[in-house]
Amino acid sequence: MRFDWAGDRDAVVFPTVRGVAVYVNTNDDVVIRQEAHALEREDTLVFVPRVHVPALIAALQAAMEDGEG
Prior knowledge:
The relative contact order is 0.13. The chain has one domain.
């Protein structure tokens, strides 16, 4: 039996989640790396200079708080 991922949405507990890695590169930037989708050749990369990391964290926290409720 072949499962129909598009047609059997009620049976899907959670969707596929691509891996996310966070590390510091040789330029001292924080890198957020998302695993490539099956149809993509390369991972998606976001480079954040260290000086801007606190602002990024604050924005992420604010987005999470806005989503609560």
